[in-house]
Amino acid sequence: MAENKPITKNVDWVVVLIYIACLGIGWVNIFAAVYNPEVHTSMFDLSNNAGKQLMWIGTAALLVVCILVIDYKFYETFSFIIYAIIILLLIMVLFAGSNINGSRSWIKIGAFSLQPAEFSKLAVSLAISKYLSDPAISLSRKLKDYYPILGIIALPAFLILLSNETGSMLVFASFAIVLYREGMPGFIPAIGMVMAALLIITLLFVKWYIAAAIIVIAGLVIWLMPVMTRRRGGLWATIIVAFVMIGIVFGVDFFMNNVLQKHQRGRIMVLLDPDSDPRGIGWNVIQSKIAIGSGGFLGKGFLQGTQTKFDFVPEQSTDFIFCTVGEEHGFAGTAVVVILFISLISRLVILAERQRSRFARVYGYCVAGIIFFHFMVNVGMTIGLMPVIGIPLPFFSYGGSSLWSFSILLFIFLKIDAQRPFTLSRG
Amino acid sequence: MLENRRFVIIGFIALVGLMYLLRLFYLQVLDESYSIESSSNSIKRVIEIPFRGQIYDRTGKLIVYNTPVYDLLVTPYKARVDDTLRFCQVLGIERHDFDSLMAAASAYSRVKPSLFLRQLSKEDFASIQDVMVDYSGFEFAKSSLRTYTAPTLANTLGYVSEITKSQLEKQEETYYRQSDYIGQSGVEKIYENELRGKRGTKFVMQNVAGVYKGPWKNGELDTMAVAGENLYSGIDLEVQQYADSLMVNKVGSVVAIEPKTGRIIAIVSAPTYDPNILASRYFSKNFAALARNPYKPLFNRPVMASYRPGSTFKLIQALIGLQEGVITPGSGFTHANCPMHCHNHPATGTVALGVMHSCNPYFYNVFRRIIYKNNIKNTFRASAVGLDNWHDRISKFGIGQRLGIDLPSEYKGNLPNKKYYDRFYGEYRWKFSNIYSLSIGEGELLITPLKMANVAAIIANRGYFYTPHVIHGIGDKKSVNPDYLIRHDTGVESHNFDPVIEGMVGAVEGGTARRSRVEGITIAGKTGTSQNKRGDDSSIFIAFAPVDDPKIAIAVFVEYAGAGGSAAAPIANLVVEKFLARKITNKALEERMLKADFMSKVILPGVKKPATADSTKKKPVTPAKPVVNKPVAINN
């Protein structure tokens, strides 16, 4: 039976190789980012981030081995318990956590700090998968089936918000992909995108023009719809949608000024115009674009990056690690990284689709969605396509918590996937 | 149905990936501007200023060199001064100086070094260097100061100072930057391009706070600074300083030239000042004091001051007369039929005697014959033609034009021609009787001491000269400006000089300059007295020696000193003796000349009558000893 077969035979080696490649490239770039030309530090020196990251990689490898050894049913069975433990940790950190960079989200163990928020992604993924593994649940028909999911997400999100880690909270948006795959009507993500688009358009153009444009478009729709679909009732729906959109346009000001905090507002404004505050919030965006842009096609060479080496780019070994890749290895380097991520995520989607159990599929989509969201936001922010949101680039950024949580997240799925030939379909 | 949604999802993921790749391709490959911004962010060009070239005298002694000085820099965020009191004592500054300097430095930058104290001498540096080890955040930077071996040659050497705004704007190719130093006058200005050397450029990397982070590309693109070229001058420092001492409390010039080469042996502009005071950090204060001084010590008299040559000009008249053939060595003239006065002297039956006794009517007649040599009947026309002919002859002596010495602002002087008088009188409305004062070097003639020294050199050479110059060798190869190797002929034949030189020897041995004759050296000289409407006449003397093999030609001008024999001749002859014999035999004369004070006779502009000696007596500008231990706050 399955238990007799070595895990190495069934594990998806494509994903494992991409994972190893990411860790290797990441580690080299962390070394480059912290490298000080005056003090020739070693890559293995535990006093710098590169040395520490190597230690984290070692421990992550141990974790991976453990995950692969543990029975695959464990994760499904203990989903809610793992979720509960993480929630407890998140509550605990609010009271006992150490304050690092203004967010109270770290648990200090000796010289190292762990961030429970990083592990909440895993907990929520398992919990949602477990919940959706019930075949009676239908996201396309029953609204009440959404409530538990919203609850599963909202609880940790709220706790994370309390500890001031907005970035980690936004990651929960990535579950939209899973929900869409599992039957959520397409108009919901469409509405989300339209809202985001409206927000940006509103900040760029005069509101009355936008309102006028919406009315014109609505008029066109009403005029053309009978011709196209010959359906009735679309008239009122269109008018309502148009008015809601105009309402959003005028609500953006309220949202920007009253809902968002000052630094969040600044980050959105800077995304639209980095030069609006070049020495302040715009600094990160401008400097990271300079770093990446100055890399050229082949880059400046390993350890030759001046932007990253001399601290022009902030947080270079963590959130802005992609800048080091861009500066020292040029477009060749960044293209490799982008392709690695897109391949990894696509591969995960393909793997998820071939799962026989719904739990496994949902979980696979969760992993793909989370990694995709991190990739999209992190890389997007360094090249000025996304607002600056402090979330790490999976497997690349320095940091034990994020490396551990992503490794666990990924390998639980690989473990489940490895058992696929021996599981029976239940959904 | 729902399975098909995976295509939407994968499509979306791929779309984002593609978008990012395109964006990266644009940022990294297509848009070049980021590379430039990156360089300007982290790569800084540091200019290394080389040492200026040094200047040597004819014996190989250094005249100008560079003294390394030390600027004390502070990096505020690193600075730790626990016992401020001791620190201030060591540096010799006050507590409030310390506070204001630190505040200024911090205001500029907390992480970059700022100037704390500038131009500490080697001695000060040595004394505080050890103590400074106790205080972190302070470092020394080497720079250099122009230093002069002797307090002499101030105007000749010129000075170096920060480039002015207009100089900065006017420079043809952008070389200098703000706060760069540049030669402002004298040799420093003329030979600026040779002296300044080649600046080095270093590319260094700096971090976000502007802190130095090592060379860029391991210094591959760096260029080394090359020190400026040394200059070799014909100045004899010992003679120069001796001449300086003789000119103390006098206003005037001494110019001594080596006739065979045109090299300048000594060039005094009196009153003078110690050039070191303009090479200190008190430049502006000292410069302002010099500029305000009514005796104009910054006025380089040997090349800029103009006088009427007086009787010294008679030498040239005699030479032209002989060359034109209007007189012979044996020609004699009496005082009869001459509108000019003369003093009592034996009969002047030859050119030599005319020169020796400096007979005014004699040269009135010589000049008259030169002007009327052409046989034009109309005296107006004859004068016009004659004057232009005379003008062309005299021009060959370098009079009325710039000689081309390697010093800035050389004054052309004035040598009148027909056109010149036409402007005053109208064409053919003047004749010899209007211009005869030229015959004895008065009238509209204007010459500089340098030109008169050159005339002495021409006579010494019997007919030719080399352009007088201070510097004759540039750099290790001692290359020479080719202009200074061109022999200029005056068109007066060598034999015509004999009677003139005979007269000059006579003038020193038993004529107008007999009181300053030098035992053992035959000097040929000629006194002159330049009339001065403001007060006492200027005393002029030109000479060369030894007569058989001239080694030195000299011109001395002393303002307000009266007749040529009274001041200029003794000074000139003392300098000649010093140069040729290296000792002074006539100690009494030397003593008298050292003590002589003609400065008190100077009537300054705006002063109506001669003031008493006390009130106008001017002390030479005493060089302010630079006090190094005074803080200077700097604006960066």
From TrEMBL, chain A:
Keywords: Cell shape, Membrane, Transmembrane, Transmembrane helix. Its main location: membrane. The chain crosses the membrane at residues 12-34, 54-70, 77-96, 149-180, 187-204, 210-228, 235-256, 330-350, 362-389, 395-416. It is a multi-pass membrane protein. It is found in: Membrane. InterPro entries: Cell_cycle_FtsW-rel_CS, FtsW/RodA. This is Cell wall polymerase. It comes from Dyadobacter arcticus. The lineage of its organism: Bacteria, Pseudomonadati, Bacteroidota, Cytophagia, Cytophagales.
UniProtKB/TrEMBL annotation, chain B:
Gene3D superfamilies: DD-peptidase/beta-lactamase superfamily, Penicillin-binding protein 2a (Domain 2), Penicillin-binding protein 2a, domain 3. SUPFAM superfamilies: beta-lactamase/transpeptidase-like (SSF56601), Penicillin binding protein dimerisation domain (SSF56519). Residues 252-575 form the Penicillin-binding protein transpeptidase domain. InterPro entries: Beta-lactam/transpept, Beta-lactam/transpept-like, PBP_dimer, PBP_dimer_sf, PCN-bd_Tpept, Penicillin-binding_protein_2. The chain crosses the membrane at residues 7-26. It comes from the Bacteria. It is a single-pass membrane protein. Keywords: Carboxypeptidase, Cell inner membrane, Cell membrane, Cell shape, Cell wall biogenesis/degradation, Hydrolase, Membrane, Peptidoglycan synthesis, Protease, Transmembrane, Transmembrane helix. Pfam families: PBP_dimer (PF03717), Transpeptidase (PF00905). It is found in: Cell membrane; Membrane. Residues 50-210 form the Penicillin-binding protein dimerisation domain. Residues 621-636 have a biased composition (Low complexity). Residues 611-636 are annotated as: Disordered. This is Penicillin-binding protein 2. It comes from Dyadobacter arcticus.
